Amino acid sequence: MLASAMQDLRYALRALRRAPVFATVAVLTVAIGIGATTAVFSVVNATLLRPLPYTDQDRVLDVSNAWNGTPRASLSPAEYFDYRRTEGAEFTAFGVYAFGAANLTSAGDPVRLRVGYLSAEVFAVLGVVPVAGRPFTAEEERAQSNVALISHGLWARQFGADPDVVGREITLNGVGTEVVGILPSDFRLPDDYAAGLISDVVAPLGLDPANATARGSHYLRGVGRLAPGISRERAQAALVAIASRFVTDFPDDYPADMQFAVTTTPLAERVVGDARQPLVLLLGAAAFVLLVACANVANLMLVRVDARRTELAVRTAVGAGRGRIARQLLTESVAIGVLGGAAGVAIASWGTRLLLALRPPNLPRFEEVSVDLSVLAVAAATAVGTGLLFGLFPAFRASDGRLAAALQAGGRGSSGTRSRFRRALVVGQVAIALTLLAGASLLGRTLLEERAVDPGFRHDHVLTGRLSLAVADYHRRVSGD
Question: Which residues are CB-contacts of 25 (< 8 A; sequence separation ≥ 6)?
């Protein structure tokens, strides 16, 4: 069987060499369809399908407040300590984090860093284990000790991946800070994904329950790990029961028209945000492009079968069975699909770099987009599946038992069924193409209308910037010291 398959493959490649125009058009058509689909799938794979770097991510929930007009609001420190009463029952760990910035002035040139300020429980919630050193403890977090963990990227950039950096003191905002650990290379806080940034340093948040009385200061993001056997619905109900008492116990902070509530969202869904639907629609559009390409090549294959009917009839007359004829034509179509898939991967690689250069806003995990092994595996399966798809009907029609009649008729003409099928393919292609064109036109018009919106001020030749100073340095400069 293997020898027979290799014989079919060699014959298919020779047949394609004898028809270079047909082979070139067919391969390029398939390459465009597979290239577009693979490029879009590389984005979908990185954004929607690839697991987050957290242990048992399905057990981790984002916990947010909600009130009228604000569905995903932050928590205040007082609310966090109230919600933590679910720890041990509904959650094994419940933590919060916030973001800030700091100047690193003790490792080469001064650099501005993004800092994630964490409660110690966040490490347990996310299941993060440092690659070197340790996380800070709950005692260090409550005391807001001068300790920190640094990201893998900062460790490589500023410290030359020196393993002895653990235990060393660095200067952040003019304060000596001990490095107690190095984070994994794929570590991100959940909100880092939405911002398209990486927290270079992770430091203790330093919340004190005795001083956490202000309920109007909302700046904390909450995350909790569900206890074994506890469903999201049960955890949500426990949090709602706590939040419902805020309205009666603190009416000045939670007026009735505020419509205050608490919500939980699976962390993966929280990270993806509103990007899921546009990406799924984009992948569907790319799949339609691939279907148009398959219909094009199927039409070409049918025309080619018509031109080769005499050849195929002769092969039947000398003993080739219907299955062997069909297998030969399927081998040719799969060869076209594989060659088109190889060219499509090159197109997808270029298309992915173009997408990275465009950097669409609000697309999480965009820095992880690449044509990796999983994308290549999907491209290979698509190439083979595409070859089978557009070659199946031509192979069936070429082996339908009427080749002897075609030989007697000198190979002239084609069956009415085949002509009707070709016309149906053309109609389907035009219908799909018009659908895609209409969608693209509507999208283009929407973008043009958004660009034409008057912001109410002159925005040409205007730049914005941000200047951050360390607090101690700022006070020293203001006082004239």
Answer: 300
